[in-house]
Amino acid sequence: MAKDVLTLAWSEMRRRKFASAIKLLESKAELYEDNFEFYLATGIACLYAGDIGSASSYFQRARHISLTDTRLLLGQAAIFMRRGDVDRALQYYFEIKENEPENKIAAQAMEFIRTHGDYDTICRWVDTGKIEQFYPPLGVNPNKVWAFIIPIFACILGVVVAIKIIPGPGTFDGPRANLANLELSADEKTSAKESDLTTQSYKFILTNKEITKRYSNALQYFQEHRDNAAQIEINTILNSDATLSIKQKAQILAGYLEIPDFDSIKDIPSYSDVKAQTFLYQDCWVAWGGKVSNAVTYEDGSYSCELLVGDETLAHYEGNVPVRFTAVPMVEGSKPVKILGQVAIQDGELLIKGRAVYQSVH
Fold first, then answer.
1. Alpha-carbon Rg of the chain, whole angstroms?
2. Cα angle vertex 260, ends 309, 333, to 5°?
3. What pLDDT, in 10s, does the model give residues 183-210?
4. Greatest Cα-to-Cα distance within the chain, rounded to the nearest angstrom
């Protein structure tokens, strides 16, 4: 039986695949408009992913529908805790205790504030991730359960079998979606190029072998969770003289690529490479550091700024790039920042669609 998006998203969140959960949920935003569980789930996923601005926005929408849900109150309290606003956090924890006197998370959070609630300690807990113990609970991670069960059975089957079937630490990102239907046909492999090159111009003129190789690379990178590398191969194909059928399959493959977080992003392109050939890196994800300037908050709640790309002191300055967020992120303008965002082109110029922000507490 097919599962609804909320069920699938919670399943991904229990497996700590927050970027995947956010992508699933946001793809159905219109369908779930004014749905409390949708706003709550998306807010919690954003909170764990480190996108505090979006988390706060979704929690506020959920609060317009229900004021007393414990998961929502825990999420909002955690946001105030992260900011060092312990008085506001305590208000939410007291409300939780009134509704659920035995709530352990609220009790532990209140004890933490009483004994270690100074800003420096909170910042260290945010930096190390320990603050997540006060977030709305997600339940047991099924991957960890299997990580415990599988070795027991593997021992019974023998060491040789165990070596083959027991995943090592952090290797539960196994095979992804089965994309056998996106494999190139024999005809597509032998006739991968457009026969008439006079109808339009192409940025890349490739050989038959180069087109099929790049498409094969894109599929392989996808299975290796190297989505940026896959996207570059896809963009090369889309800007080449590959046939329409191959380009259509490449576009379908692009739809399977996931939204990364700061921990999962791989193959990050450099500012200079993206600036030089933005079309080649369109829809790739970057995590660039530097400092923020010219920040503006708009009436619709969106936010834009210029990221001065470089090191913490801008001693190594690479250039400016405009960044746009759909919600106001938590940014202290005087401090160095790292922004996670997606490469886009607006009016022919490079734009980063901001997703999350990280600022060190040190």
1. 23
2. 35
3. 999 999 999 998 877 777 899 999 999 9
4. 74
283 HSE (CA, 13 A, CB side): 17
Q: According to the per-residue pLDDT averaged within each range, which of 101-115, 245-259, 268-282, 304-318 is highest?
A: 268-282
Q: Are 258 and 24 in contact (CB under 8 A)?
A: no
Helix/strand/coil (H/E/C) assignment for every residue in the chain = CCCCHHHHHHHHHHCCCHHHHHHHHHCCCCCCCCCHHHHHHHHHHHHHHCCHHHHHHHHHHHHCCCCCCHHHHHHHHHHHHHHCCHHHHHHHHHHHHHHCCCCHHHHHHHHHHHHHCCHHHHHHHHHHCHHHHHCCCCCCCHHHHHHHHHHHHHHHHCHHHHHHHCCCCCCCCCCCCCCHHHCCCHHHHHCCECCCCCCCCCCECCCHHHHHHHHHHHHHHHHCCCHHHHHHHHHHHHCECECHHHHHHHHHHHCCCCCCCCCCCCCCCCHHHHHHCHHHHCCCEEEEEEEEEEEEECCCCCEEEEEEEECCCCCCEEEEEEEEECCCCCCCCCCCEEEEEEEEEECCEEEEEEEEEECCCC
pLDDT per position as a tens digit, 303-342: 999 999 998 888 899 999 999 998 888 787 778 999 999 9
Which one is predicted more confidently, 73 or 121? 73
Please give the structure tokens belonging to residue 233.
């191969």
Has residue 265 got a pLDDT over 70?
yes
First to last CA, the chain: 49
